[in-house]
User: Fold these one by one.
Assistant:
Number 1:
Amino acid sequence: MKVLVTGALGFIGSHVVEALTAAGHEVTAYDALLPAVHPDPHAARTRLPAGVPLIEADVRDPAPLRDAVRAVDAVCHQAARVGLGLDLGDAPDYAGCNDLGTAVLISAMAAANVRRLVLASSMVVYGEGRYDCAMHGQVEPGPRAESDLLAGQFEPQCPMCGLPLSPGFVMEEAPLDPRNVYAATKAAQEYLTSAWARAAGGSAAMLRYHNVYGPRMPRDTPYAGVAAIFRSALAAGRAPRVFEDGGQRRDFVHVRDVAAANVLALEWTADAGTGWSRAFNVGSGTPHTVGDLAAGLAKATGGPTPVVTGEYRLGDVRHVTASNERLRKELGWEPAVDFGDGLAEFADSSPSSP
C-alpha cells in the first residue's frame, strides 16, 4: 500500500514510518520541520529509512498536500501540536495545527478519492478516566477545585456522596470530556475524521494514544512529555520533581508498540466498511503511577531520588488508564515492550538518535 505519513520526522511519526516500511508498505514522509519541534532539521532527516522520500511542507498548506495525497492509497496522520495548551493565548496555534491541518487533509483526501485514514488521537479526549464509587457505582467526577489541590486533596471524590473513588480502565465508549485546549483540538480531529468517513465513504481508525515514551522522545522543548522531563533532570544530575503526590495513574506505552498499532490499524482500514470510523485505545493495559516512572528512571540512570513536590497544574487530570481490549481483539495487537525494559532503553537513548 502507498502511504503518506504526516509528521513523519517526529517522535512517534518516525517510528511509524519505520514500522510501515518494515511491513512492506511504500511510504512517503511529510513534515513541516517546524523549529519548535525540530531544532536540528538535519538530524531529523536522518531518521528516515533509506529510499523513503520526504516532502517538506505544512499540512495547513493545501497545494503541496493535494499533490502528495494524489499519489497514495492511504494516510497516517501524525502531525499535530502537542502539550496541554493551558494558556488560552495558544489556542489559535493549537486549533490551526491540529484542526485546520486535519480539515485541509480530509478535503484533499476527498478530492483525490483516498479512503483510508489512521488518525493519531489521544487519551486526553476523555478528561478524567473511569471512576467507581462504593455507594453509587460508576460516576463522573467534576473538574478538580483549586482549593482542594492547594490543600493536597488530589483524589477526585464522588459528586453525590463525597466518598473516595476507585480508578478503573476507560473504554472507548466513554463520553469525551476534553479539559484543556490541546484535548479539545484532539476531540475536534476525531469529529472531523468521522465526518469525512461518512461523507466520503472512507474508513478511519482513530488511535487514542496513552502516555507514549521511548527513543527520540523530544526534551527541552514545549513538546517534551513527563518522561522526557524526568530524564533531562537526571541527565543534569538533578532529582526529578514529581507533581501532586506522585500517585497519578497513567498507562505508559512504548513508541514501538504504538507504531505496531498504526500498521495494524492501516491494514484494518482496508477491510473496514465504507463510511466507518472507529476509536481504539493504544495503551499497555498495565497502569503505573507518575511516581513509578520517576523512580524507575532514577534507578535506571543511577540518579538522585525523585522529589515529590505537591505542585499541580489545573489542566491535569488525576487518573486515566486504558482498556486495550478492543485493540487486542479486533486488530490482534499485543504490547511487546516490558515497562522496565522500556525505561532502561529510554534512559540510555538520545532524543536525536536515529
Note: The chain has a mean pLDDT of 92.
Number 2:
Amino acid sequence: MTAQTIVLVEDDPTLRMLTARLLQENGYAVRTAATAPEMWIALEGVAVDMIVLDLMLPGTNGIDLCRQIRRTSDIPIIFISARGSDEDRVLGLELGADDYLAKPFNTRELIARIRAVLRRGPMSDTDGGGGRKSEIRFDGWIVSLSRRELRSPTGAIVDLTGAEFDLLGTFIDQPQRVIGRERLIELSRTRVGDSSDRSIDVLVSRLRRKLTAAGGKPPIVTVRGVGYMFNAPVSRA
C-alpha cells in the first residue's frame, strides 16, 4: 500500500524536523517547506493527500496561501498556528481549511486530526447487503459516495472540501431530523477545529453557500437554539 503524502509547511526548522519525523513514524510520506515558494515546489510532480500549513510564515503567510490553493484545489488543509483564538480558528475555517490546531499541540492529537481528515470510511463504499449505497439523491442533487462527488440539479460538479463533504454526508444520513451542533461534530468524522458552536456554524455556512451558488435553495435549515435539520427527502440508488 502506497503511503499517503503530506506537505508540511513550517518555518521553524526544529518544529519542522520533529513534525516531519512524527509523520514519517506514523506511515506518511512527507515533503517539507519553510516558505510559500518551497511549498509550491513540494507540490509539484507528486500526488499530495494533505497540506499541514503554518499560519504565520515569512513572506506569503498561510492565510494567503490557503486562499491561493482553494482557487484551484480542494486538497485537505490543516492549519497549525501559535494563534489559537476563536477568531483565528473561525477565519481558518472560513478560508476553506479542514481543521485548525493551535500550537503547542499534542503530537497524538495532530496525528488523530490528520487521520480524521484523511479518513473516508463509510462515505466511500457501496454495500450490497442493505447498507449505504453509492449514490444518494435529494431535490435533484446527486451525491456519489464512491467518488466523493456532488452534482447540482443542472449537472455541474460542486467542489467540496473533505470537511464539507463529510458534513453533507452526516445530514443526508439523518434527513428530517434535528441535529444539535455538538452531535454534528461527533457524527461528521472530520473534526472542525474544536467543538464550539461558531466552528460548526462556519462549516454549515460554507456548505450552504456552495449549494446556493450552484442553484436552488439549500435544504439545511437552522432550528433556533438547537442546531440544524436537513429538510429534504432523500433516496438511495
Note: Confidence is low (pLDDT under 50) at residues 120-133, 190-195.
